[in-house]
Amino acid sequence: MRFTFFSLCFTAFALAAGEKQAVSKSVEQPEMGRSGLFLGLGGSYNSVKLDQHLSGDAVSSVFLEGTSTQVASGQAGGPIAPWHETLNTFAPETQIGYFGHFGSSPWLWGCEFFYKYLGLVFSSAEVVFQAGKFNTVTGVSDNFTGHAIARSMQVTVNNELSLMALFGRSFKKSYLYVGAGPVLYGTHTNIYSLTGYADINGNGGTDITGNPVTLFNSLWMWGGGGELGGTWFVSPRWFLDINYSYLVTGRNPIHDIVSFSNVTQTNPALSDAGKIFLSLSQRITTQALTVSVNFLW
Q: Residue 149: which domain range?
């Protein structure tokens, strides 16, 4: 009887201890998942640098107004000073990706696709100084100073898309990783109200191109870069992600050809016609710090 009583007490104690241990384990923070597809939303602080180089060339032929009699021809060309500018902005970001482990090891692999809307506008008013030369049909030639004035120049950087291949190491409730891959920027480069002038024999500048010209260019700019980041799992499915990325494009070219014509109110009146050739190259460099909340399937 006494043995039965002590046996019952011991059994009850063991059951209570096991139940307490189970409760204790249930309130511990669970470990991270081993693999799966994840989706995240967050925000980023971005430092975006624009490097641009622009040069232009123009050729023209001068006629007696109302006739086909050519009296002169001219050409001018040259670069402007390089444009370097950095803007900072906060931007929303979304990401989708997958990670998995190499067998039962702590080493992992994966990939991530990011999209963010930057909405940055770089603006600058430029004066392009050029050296040129004109020739008359009688064989007279002279040097002159030509310049083109643009009311403003704008480069808009809106969309950023990147795809990163990941490699990292996991721990109980987190993992650290590095990534590398391509990036794509959606940009617009516009030159507003461009007019070309020629300062011939000190006359203060003759309008050669006539009506101002506005140029619109849309360009998807390719590049690449890398990232360094880490995660922390607050549950088996939810985790925080923090990463730093450095992305840079190549020097993407833009070429524009614009025809022009104008009538100069001289005595006799002269008309000119020609073309402007613009060559532009630009590069975008972005450094960003991103924080996101992610759900793992």
A: 35-296
